[in-house]
Amino acid sequence: MHWQDSAMAFEPVTVRPILIFDGDCGFCTTGVAWLGQALAVMPMATPSQGADLASLGLTGADGFARGWLVVAGRPFGRAATVAALLRQQPRAVLGLLGWPGTVSPLSWAAEGCDRLVGRYRFELLGGTPVCRAGFLGTAGFTS
């Protein structure tokens, strides 16, 4: 199955998208593993630490701070990542759950929730001290 999202591209995408996540974060790694099992359509997932972020239009700080979905060379971050993943699912209910995150003012709420998860992921199931370090500036990154 080819990945295609009419909100992100006008023509079918023939290159499989890439999901970039913080591989040092237990919460992120666990979440991506769960998504890989739960979703029928899943992009290739790669930890930011092993990815050529510059070729994807991202920086090291970007890779640490949030998950990214890169589709046809264009990076989508935060709530747009989750919304796009859901919209690509063959189960109608999952596809429908992806649309509210793209429509204002619901998209604003989705972004706010995503920022909270990103900021406090070290407190969530599987979170590690490494997750907190970047937000405190000790790893050289800030949110």
Description of the molecule:
By secondary structure, this protein is an alpha+beta fold. It has one domain. Helices cover 39% and strands 11% of the residues. The protein has helices at residues 26-38, 60-65, 79-87, 92-98, 106-119, 129-135; strands at 18-21, 44-47, 68-71, 74-77. A four-stranded mixed sheet has the order 2-1-3-4. β1, α1 (26-38) and β2 form a beta-alpha-beta unit. α3 (79-87) runs antiparallel to α4 (92-98). The longest helix has 14 residues, at 106-119. The radius of gyration is 15 Å and the shape is globular. The chain starts with 17 loop residues before the first strand and ends in an 8-residue tail after the last helix. The model is unreliable at 135-143 (pLDDT under 50).
In short:
The protein is an alpha+beta fold and 143 residues long. The protein contains 6 helices and 4 strands.
Task: Please write out the topology.
Elements: E1 18-21, H1 26-38, E2 44-47, H2 60-65, E3 68-71, E4 74-77, H3 79-87, H4 92-98, H5 106-119, H6 129-135
Parallel strand pairs: 1-2
Antiparallel strand pairs: 1-3, 3-4
Helix pairs in contact: 3-4
As residue ranges, the low-confidence spans are 135-143
Strands of the largest sheet, in order across it? 2-1-3-4
- The gyration radius over C-alpha positions equals 15 Å
What's the helix-strand series?
EHEHEEHHHH
Give the biggest sheet: 4 strands, mixed
Question: What is the helix fraction of residues, given as a range?
Answer: 25-40%
Total strand count, please? 4
Average pLDDT, all residues: 77
The helix-and-strand class reads alpha+beta
Number of helical stretches of at least 4 residues: 6
Distance from first to last alpha carbon: 35 Å
Strand content: 5-15%
How would you name the oligomeric state of the polypeptide chains in this document? single chain
> Shape from CA axes?
globular
Summed up, the domain count is 1
